[in-house]
Amino acid sequence: MDLNVKIVSRRPVFPSTRIITPLDVPLSIIDATVLNFSPSETVLLYDAVLSPEVMREALEETLDFYPQWCGRLRRNDKINRYGRLMLSYGHVEDPGVLFVVGETDVSLSTFLPTPIDRAQRLQAWDASSFPAKQLVPGDSLSTSNLDDPTLHSVTVQLTKFGCGGMAVGLKFAHPLTDAHAMSHFARDWAAMCRAIVIQSPLPQLFPVFDPQLLDAHAGDVNALDSDPELIARAHALHSHRYDWWISGEDCPYPTDSATVPKGLEPCDPPGTRIPWSEWDLAAPVSHYVFHFSGPELTRLWQTTLDSQSSGFVSRQDALLAHIWTCINRARGLSDDDGLVHLDYTLGLRARTAPPLPEWFMGSPLIIAAVSTTGRRASRSPAGVASLIRATVALFTPESVGAHIHAKFHEQSPQRLWQAFLGKRHLLVTSWIHTHMYDVDFGSGKPQYVEAVMPKCDGLLQLMEAAPVDASSDGPKHWSDDGVDVQLHLTTEAMEKLLKDPVLRRYRVE
């Protein structure tokens, strides 16, 4: 729907105490691998509005602890390796963080069901018309053109609604933040805002921006040759190696990713051709949010455990297996003996030894490939849950270190894509434990959080649902309030999925 948002103001903001001390910080090699990913984006919707001036002041105070996000993302020309990135900040000409304020006469209730309705009445909400792109700045980010020094890497938009509600939209260049880093920043900004509102001392914040903490797990990266043992271990991981540089002829849309960069002669062994024929880009795509209650998820998980011959699976394993098998049936793959893939985005903070700090800023990600036949992945949720758990278990600190080592020695960190979309793939991102529903700027917690993603067939995102019982303040399991599953699927497959009685088999009335 068209919100007809009127932009009231737009300006770059900087730390409240701006220090002009130029710094050029190389990003992690893993940060560089996500250069061509879509931005990290979210929209948080609130029932009440706060003063944009107070929120801007709080943002400036917060940026005292995040000065790097005011800088410029650029190529690292200080080393003779292609595709490496660095962040330059502390310069007079820094682009800053773009801060936009807009307003609309539309009410939130026009397009957003209440948390109780989403959890109890709907349980499957058609969010295809959710106006996410109107609630974040439409400006191109620095990742779209690393040669343009004016482009921002972080943008923010506040939108006031006619009902008195407010949207807070955040958009980040993906090499700077994954969902967990974005959540930490949002909670820090909110804490700063609350302190200003009640006139209490401003909090001290402790984000960790030190990309080399991750790269330090790569072993010797200065040697001319890579370590064959580490390369073998990295290549043994269950991850796709789809090769952009050998897949350009079949690519259905123009993209620089599928072109060998000028001046480079490919020297690495080729990966796998991207299976473009499996993805119908012209097919209409629907976007639904499925709510699974806490008791429903517990029943699903317990049934999965009872069906296991051995080993443990988590609630998240069980839920993913359940949904994926339903999706494969909806896609008509029940009798298909070809491979299908659950491409599972894994965070690396806890997968290094020692682990990275919880507040580590960056995009430390790897994508695991859980692969089996369409036939098996349509009929055996318990077996699929075990396969998911077994695949994730392969990503040990030793294997992750080998992967980082391999990326250092590749000619380009952007050449290989560890995921795909379309009929045989489901790309999963988990926002579990991001605590996005705790982001309170002083007017209350959000009634809805949207993970903004492209409208592409085969995207799935998990997140704790909005609490509907504000009185329960004690310790809770992450699934107690239920789980929201945002799913983008072809409209044809989505319609079949909605009719599958197995999907809500474990529903508790």
Name the features.
Transferase; Chloramphenicol Acetyltransferase; 2 domains; alpha+beta; 25% helix; seven-stranded mixed sheet; 509 residues
Account of the 3D structure:
Keywords: Transferase. One of its GO terms (biological process) is secondary metabolite biosynthetic process. One of its GO terms (molecular function) is acyltransferase activity, transferring groups other than amino-acyl groups. It holds the Pfam family Transferase. This is Transferase. By secondary structure, the protein is an alpha+beta fold. It folds into two domains: 6-213, Chloramphenicol acetyltransferase-like domain (Chloramphenicol Acetyltransferase); 235-432 and 453-466 and 482-499, Chloramphenicol acetyltransferase-like domain (Chloramphenicol Acetyltransferase, 2-Layer Sandwich). Helices cover 25% and strands 21% of the residues. The chain is built from twelve helices and 18 strands. The strands form four sheets. A seven-stranded mixed β-sheet has the order 7-11-18-17-15-12-13. A six-stranded mixed β-sheet has the order 1-6-8-9-3-16, with helices on one face. A hairpin with a 5-residue loop joins strand 8 and strand 9 (166-172). Helix 2 (52-63) crosses helix 4 and helix 7 (294-306) crosses helix 8 (315-330). The longest helix is centred in the middle third of the chain and has 19 residues, at 179-197. It starts with 5 loop residues before the first strand and ends in a 10-residue tail after the last helix. The model has no long low-confidence stretch (mean pLDDT 95).
